[in-house]
Amino acid sequence: MLLSVAFLAIAIISSLGSTQSQQSQPENNCNTCCQGPVGIPGIPGTAGQHGLPGRDGRDGMKGDKGEIGMNVKGDKGDDGLGQVGLPGPQGLSGEKGDKGLQGVGLPGKTGPRGPVGPVGIKGMAGQAGSAGTIGQKGQKGECGQGRKSAFAAVRTTDQTGNVNDVVTFQETSVNIDGHFSLQSNKFTCQVPGIYVFMYSVTVWQPTDPFIALVKNNNLVVTAHTRISASNDVDQTGNSAILNLETGDQVWLKFDVHSGRKLHGNSQRYSSFSGFLLYEM
User: Fold this and answer.
1) Does residue 261 belong to any structural domain of this protein?
2) How far is 41 from 18, CA to CA, in rounded Å?
3) pTM score
4) pLDDT at 139 over 80
């Protein structure tokens, strides 16, 4: 394609040159009047075939071995910072120097305390009355024992009572110094102190008694039970802790209703007891 364009350009240039040459000749030239008009340039021919590629050139010959270079020693580098070594062994002591001049003296330390001197002669005592003779030591007394008080009374028969009637008992299993009386059925305090009292009563057949514990006729506590059917049995009771003085009395009594019945027999179902907890 490039060769076709080149041939077309050459043809155009040749045509222009020929035209200028004809115009410069004299008008009487025969060729001027006889030559016809310039023809249209021809179509360029087809491009020729490409030539064969050239062959690669051969490797050149190996050059001669160069000379051995000289070993030049470099300059010495700067000194590095080394690690500090371990301390060496202690050297020998030097000779003792001359004794220096004595300095200005300061007060010395206080010396040890001296021995105590002998006791002086005792002065004469003033006149005094004659002392009485010391009596002989008495015999060792017996160990003292705290006073005691306790009782336990039981019923062995039935009892029917009205309001304020005293509940009675027939026997005592314990009665220290007789502080409980089977005649009055009351406990009378002989040792002032704190006392514990307990009682238990049994009922049989339809009844509903109220049994009260009193101190000097003052109500302390009450126990109550009720039987509605025949041949039923029930039991009730109560307890109290009292502070008693000498002469105070404690007993049980019927309360609230009259005609109420307590049950008692040889089995000792009903009881009344008390004891001294500690003396005041």
Assistant:
1) yes
2) 13
3) 0.49
4) no
